[in-house]
Design a protein that fits this description.
Strand content: 5-15%
Helix content: 40-55%
Oligomer: single chain
Structural class: alpha+beta
Radius of gyration: 29 Å
Largest sheet: 5 strands, antiparallel
Number of helices: 14
Order of helices and strands: EHHEEHEHEHHEEHHHHHHHH
CATH class of the largest domain: Mainly Alpha
Strand order of the largest sheet: 1-3-2-4-5
Number of domains: 2
Number of strands: 7
């Protein structure tokens, strides 16, 4: 008998392996039923029928007087309980030997109480990759197009429309002004600033579609494709446009507090607003997501978003970037995502969700 054995007697209160000697010899392990620690194969043990221990429920602690062995995990399913070393947990999960409804007891993974496997982040962390499938494979297939299928829907998305408008305006102005592009652009910006202070408020929208040079528009459109598509995934076309314009205006207004003869140009304020929307969305919705998505939101997406956004705030027009980010975040507090877009990502098991968040 190798690294996995039946522990019915231990569960019913019989003496457990000595906590001060978690790695007994092979002879001692075979004699007292504790797991052997030399094999990586979870196929080495044969389960033994139940020893009559009391049934366990999620949230239960071990029987009174029982000492939970350190560095060991109990897994109960199908009327049988297994004891494995904590190091064997990844092997069992990867080989799909731990059902979602199995009960797990461990000092390390469950803090000493029985928990359903599906409620543990460490269970989803080691599951085979096909179990963490994209959202379009969970529910009805969502039509997508564009590079890597980043744009949602069979028709043109709002993000694509905004990219197309920015590129077309910049291209048309470059073809018209050619070598005089830069001086002509800033001349227009200066004239627009004058119109704004004369009371023509729609002027605030126009600089959102003007860009200083090729590098400026290229970097902005790449960022818009990244941030805009994710916002549109949850908010839809109309709400994405609304949030984009709110963020752009907020960035333009804050930029006006700095005295200068021209208006700032570029979509970067509005684009930073898209990341502000995403930050609020992740902070507000991550507790309601299924465990795999919740883990990704907390451990990958939020840190990556902060690493991406914080340095970008200080590039070019700082006030425009900060204003746009704050405007997008503020807009997301009032503009809600579309409920039907969230349904496939949400954890619909309310009682279990409440237990996980407790």
């Amino acid at each position: 008998m190798a690294d996995l054995t039946r522990q019915g007697d231990a569960l019913s209160g019989a003496p457990a392996p000595n906590p001060d000697n978690p790695s007994p010899s092979a002879g001692e392990s075979a004699a007292n039923g504790a797991p052997l620690h030399g094999s990586d194969s979870p196929d080495a043990a044969t389960p033994v029928e139940s020893g009559g221990e009391p049934p366990a429920a999620e949230g239960d602690a071990p029987p009174p007087g029982h000492i939970l062995p350190p560095q060991h995990t109990w897994i109960r399913f199908g009327g049988t309980t297994y004891q494995i070393h904590d190091a064997q947990w990844p092997h069992w999960v990867r080989l799909d030997r731990v059902p979602e409804d199995a009960l797990v007891l461990s000092r390390q993974w469950t803090k000493g109480v029985w928990r359903r496997a599906a409620s543990l982040e460490v269970f989803h962390l080691y599951r085979p990759s096909q179990e963490l499938r994209p959202i379009e494979e969970v529910g009805p297939t969502v039509p997508r197009h564009g590079p890597f299928g980043i744009f949602r829907g069979p028709g043109i998305s709002m993000t694509e429309s905004l990219i197309a408008i920015n590129v077309l305006i910049t291209t048309a102005l470059f073809l018209a002004w050619r070598s005089d592009y830069s001086p002509q652009l800033w001349g227009v910006s200066e004239a627009l600033r004058g119109k704004l202070f004369e009371g023509w408020l729609p002027v605030l929208f126009l600089p959102l579609f003007l860009h200083a040079n090729l590098a400026h528009i290229t970097s902005n459109m790449i960022a818009l494709a990244g941030g805009g598509t994710v916002v549109e995934e949850f908010y839809g076309r109309k709400r994405t446009l609304l949030l984009y314009l709110i963020a752009g205006i907020a960035g333009a207004l804050l930029s006006l507090t700095r005295e200068k003869p021209v208006l700032s140009v570029g979509a970067s304020g509005a684009i930073m607003g898209m990341f502000g929307v995403l930050l609020v969305f992740l902070l507000r919705e991550r507790k309601h997501l299924r465990l795999p998505e919740r883990w990704r939101a907390s451990r990958i997406q939020l840190p990556f978003l902060l690493l991406l956004v914080v340095p970008s705030l200080f590039n070019a027009d700082l006030l425009s970037h900060v204003g746009g980010f704050l405007g997008g975040a503020a807009g997301a507090l009032f503009v809600q995502p579309l409920p039907e877009r969230l349904s496939a990502y949400r954890d619909l098991s309310e009682p279990l969700s409440a237990a996980r968040d407790a």
